[in-house]
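Quick question about two entries, pasted in order.
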Amino acid sequence: MEFFVVQLLNGISYGLLLFMLCSGLTLVFSLMGVLNFAHASFYMLGAYFAYQVSLYVGFYPALVVAPLLVGGIGMLVERFGLRTVHRYGHVAELLFTFGLAYLVDEAVHLVWGRAAVEYRIPASLDGPLFRVFTSEYPTYRVFMMLVSVAMLVSIWLALTRTRIGLVIQAALTHPQTVEALGHNVPRVFMLVFGGGAALAGLAGVIGGNAFVTEPGMAAAVGPIIFVVVVVGGMGSLAGAFVASLLIGCLQTFSVGLDWKIFGLNITVAQTAPVLPYLLMVLILIFRPRGLLGTREG
């Protein structure tokens, strides 16, 4: 029972972190039709910016400053990069974001080097918060969950209760009508892309010290982000949320199981990295639109 409760809490916290990462990518795709290959690079930038800012003013100001910096970079990328290549079609956009990911990686190498940096959990959040049977549960894990839930509620309120949220939703399906009503649709696109980058940066702030902040972190989380988006359904925020929790719990539980598979010399824990991709293949076979998606593929 203890194993189940602890792993469930860990799975939910990891799943919520994945959702924070995937929500920005899902918003950008649903509005602009751009599958941003550099999205994980914004996650990495958030972690590195938070590390740098926290050296001078501490972790909590970095929690605000780093996502804003990443969001600003995202808006510049959309304004002077994606908007320029948009006229050449989606293939050009994909190639642009693919190349951007390499540029960000090299920039990180030049500025911070190739070794991991000492971006640590703040002392006020380091330690156990409560006990689960005989195990102590870390305060920072709970903090991660609270930040993720606050972000989820903020996105929902922004999209459903604010004027800009209504404009964004209208621009999803009727961009010409929205522009005819006097709204600057290109500026909406820029703000959404910057907001998506900021969400990835926020995930980097709270995930960078929980795991590790090093130049390979973007490559480590990049594939799993796209798995979540495909499983949940392309462009579906609700689907991304469900898929994030599902994959978070799937990986967390499987890592802790040493059961042998059908008598083979392979344990469930050894297959844990492969399981999300197996789930994605099954989803593509039996439900190509994803769990809650509305479009095929």
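Here is the second entry:
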Amino acid sequence: MKPVQATNAEVAAAALVSLPAMSPSRLRHALSERDPEELWRDVCASRSSIRELLVRGDVKHAAAAAREFNLDALSATLNANSINVLTPSDHRYPEALRDDVDRPPVLFTRGEHSLLAGRVAAIVGTRRATAAGRATAKELAQELAAAGITVLSGLALGIDTAAHRGAMAVGSTVAVVGCGLDLCYPARHQSIFDEICDEHLALSEWPPGTAPAPFRFPMRNRLIAALSEVVIVVESGLTGGSLITAREALDRGREVMAVPGNLQVSSSGGTNALIRDGATPITSVDEVLREFEVSRAVQNPPLTTPHMKGRAIEIAHELSHGSLTLDQLVQRLSVPIGEVVVAMGELLRLEIVVESNGWLELSGSMLVSGKEHQ
């Protein structure tokens, strides 16, 4: 991560967007015409010209808040965390956002800005992802990144993190977050967040010190949609942030693709609904690569399927309909628990099945091999 020395204009822009009474849409317009330092001086001086920037028009209240604002502390935080401050007049501001009707007046970034200059695909999905969903997101991200496409997601649990990890293994990723870039949410992702900031790119419209809040994540999702050429939904319930991202993408004329899933699994409800409503279904990585008009960087060798027999085949069949506990498997198969335990031990050893908090589920990607589609 490159060291940052924030300029006075950058600190002023960060301070302006930090004021609670500041209207983002009005500030966006003002910063397209005026210098942030000039605007900040006008706020501090209680000039009536800044009334148009405020949600409630209370110039005295805004001026009092500005005069109490610690610009030196803000500058120190920006520098200590290598946070860049971008306004639309900055050449580093993403081109995909410049003409967006809802572009942020100020963006905060950590990492390599050039990653947004190339081809970008978003991979999003539920936090409550299945093992198969996570494997699918990782496979898609890895193949896209290997082909030179930057993979963008939201650093959330489940599908998002699997996508980031898949991309980071071979290429580049961008994380759009719903809090200040001096924080990490969720906290358990600190190591992956640090790696993204050091070697990839993290981006937020929220100034340092801003804690995550529920209303910030739908706003984060509109940025994911706006920054991407294609939005890919791997797993999603019938409600949630992934569907918000898909709607924001459609509103902007972006392509939306979705991985179809088992009708009996709740995490497939949203993706199946998207496909029903016109999203492009994905059954192989090659279908996504064709959307970008690129080929696989390296053709994968044919996948070999671990040999299963007898009870293991029956267990895999039952788990293909969704996660089950050991007791539920025994009940469904109507066989002695010892036979199920032995077969399950082999499936776990072969990593065909994974166990999480007592629930057993298939671990493989939901996509078919590229060879079948050539």
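Reply: Residues 131-146 form the longest helix (16 residues). The two ends are 40 Å apart (CA to CA). Hope that helps.
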